[in-house]
Amino acid sequence: MERTFIMVKPDGVQRGLVGEVITRFEKRGYKLIGLKFFTIPTVLAETHYGEHCDKPFFRGLVDFITSGPVAAMVWEGKNVVAAAREMLGATDPQKALPGTIRSAYGIDIGRNVAHGSDSEAGAQREIGLFFDETELKSYSRAIDSWIYE
Length: 149
Ligand code: DAT
Ligand code: MG
Hints:
globular, binds magnesium ion, alpha+beta, binds 2'-deoxyadenosine-5'-diphosphate, 4 strands
């Protein structure tokens, strides 16, 4: 089973959207295996968004993501990396398809509510940055046979 890293950003936390984001993943059938509520240290934010270090928005992005608590999560399920990106929608909420999280709850690109890993390799990297292996819980659910055939 695949794992991905999802994070409700400080705007999503402030706006009371942690539950909405969790609910969408829970209701679809994905399994929550890690959850952490904390304020990201600057160095972790710079590492997490390292691919953007040369972009003009990098400093503002790091300042924003460290400006308040986030809800960091790991979700597990079949094809969850790509599926989660679809559920989030395009980076710019104005371009996100209706029904996606960013379209439903966001307007500006710098306030797009939630993060999701963009690839399996990216997911592995981000999960490793935010969680120790002991913080990720494997467990079976009685309902799994009603989600997977
Ligand atoms: P995503 O979060 O969809 O993976 P990304 O990795 O390209 O998008 O960018 C990371 C975050 O940086 C994104 O969620 C919001 C912010 N961002 C991206 N492009 C931006 C831009 N042109 N101006 C301001 N913020 C931007
Ligand atoms: Mg990205």
